[in-house]
Amino acid sequence: MEYVPGPTLRHELERLGSFQLGTALDICDQVLQGLAAAHRAGIIHRDIKPENILFDDACPPPSPVRLP
């Protein structure tokens, strides 16, 4: 997997406490789209947790979510 410069979802939740509803829905949508793409390719992640959801700071806001 390539290097992703940015914080994890866990780090951001600890820092901010929570997200606004629209932001939370956007994050969930990106995670679910990533999992769906992986499943279509025959890949099962098996370790989805806040520590494994990464925000890509190299991209302009809103930062896309990456799954390792």
Automatic annotation (TrEMBL):
InterPro entries with a match to the protein in the record: Kinase-like_dom_sf, Prot_kinase_dom, Ser/Thr_kinase_AS
Stretch forming the signal peptide: none
An MF annotation (GO) of this entry: ATP binding
Species the sequence originates in: Streptococcus anginosus
Pfam families named in the record: Pkinase (PF00069)
Keywords: ATP-binding, Kinase, Nucleotide-binding, Serine/threonine-protein kinase, Transferase
Domain of life per record: Bacteria
SUPFAM superfamilies: Protein kinase-like (PK-like)
Descriptive protein name: Protein kinase
Domain Protein kinase, chain residue ranges per copy: 1-68
